[in-house]
Amino acid sequence: MPWIIIKFAPSPDQLPLLETLLSNAGAGAITFEDNADQPLYEPPRGSMPIWESTRLSALFESDVNIENITALIRSQFANNTPQYRVEILEDKDWVREWMEAFHPIQFGDRLWVCPSWRKPPDKDAINMLLDPGLAFGTGTHPTTALCLKWLDAQPLEGKTVVDYGSGSGILAVAAKLLGAATVWAVDNDPQALIATKANAERNHISEHILVASPEEFEEEFIRKKQKADILLANILAGPLILLAATLEKSLKLQSKLILSGILQEQAEEVISHYERWFNIDPIVSDGDWVRITGMRTTTEVMNK
């Protein structure tokens, strides 16, 4: 059965009324999308920011009287009706369409991230099976790619690795497949921990991936004075700044720190909160995003 979709280009102040009218008219789904490539980074907790240019799409069954709906919209907004267009959305196997969009991706020399329904391109490579699902992280975002490429280039055999803010568990699973002995995957979102467990099981390494909330990690790792050889935190600049002292406690001397999820203009502020403990390497960037790496020093390094 085909569907009808109406796409609007409203101003931010028109969105609440427009959403209500479309919902009352029987829309099966209403979505908001960025209409001008204006990303929203680190919104305040509890806020629901809206792009300055937002596209609103409303989905209706094909037998709806679309003229009645558009007439209602015009009557409510009078001479200020947002621009819109009506499209027919053909009936497809949307699950198959979604699956076709994901392809294996190579990171570095050894590592491939492959959807479980596709055959790995190189059977002799290190192939991580990872399906898009409950938590962020399939390797396509620059911040994740920066971390995966770093991991691929490291000798990880026998290392203890912490993936703080694990999301889907992609970095934790990659670290184990690349040779780490034990990996802790830490996240404050229960759905992320579920996704990490599922991806560890899919790659047959679940016994080597320890999932934990931040509180559990504090109790079982930090308070017991365990120390990691490598800690990755692909989060965002704000949380990384707040977590500096916690992450530092997790690392032994001469261990390595990898931070990502950071914009170019945020890098210096993040570094300023870590350089007292770490010798920081030159920043590596991918577009607007950067990766910060450093080594835990034997003595505290004073801010420069």
What is this structure's SSE topology?
Layout: E1 3-9, H1 15-24, E2 29-34, E3 54-61, H2 66-77, E4 83-89, H3 94-100, E5 105-107, E6 111-114, E7 126-129, H4 142-152, E8 160-164, H5 170-177, E9 182-186, H6 190-202, E10 209-212, H7 214-222, E11 228-234, H8 237-242, H9 244-249, E12 251-263, H10 267-272, E13 278-280, E14 284-286, E15 289-296
Helix pairs in contact: 4-5
What would you note in describing this structure?
The protein has 304 residues and is α/β, with parallel strands linked by helices. The chain folds into two domains: 3-91, Alpha-Beta Plaits; 133-296, Vaccinia Virus protein VP39 (Rossmann fold, 3-Layer(aba) Sandwich), CATH 3.40.50.150. The chain has ten helices and 15 strands.
Number of domain units: 2
Largest sheet: 8 strands, mixed
Overall number of strands: 15
Radius of gyration: 23 Å
* Relative strand content: 25-35%
Output the number of helix runs.
10
Using the coordinates above, name the CATH class of the largest domain: Alpha Beta
Mean pLDDT: 87
**Which architecture of the largest domain per CATH?**
3-Layer(aba) Sandwich
Distance between the termini: 65 Å
CATH topology of the largest domain: Rossmann fold
What structural class is derived from the secondary structure elements? alpha/beta
Assembly state: single chain
CATH homologous superfamily classification of the largest domain:
Vaccinia Virus protein VP39
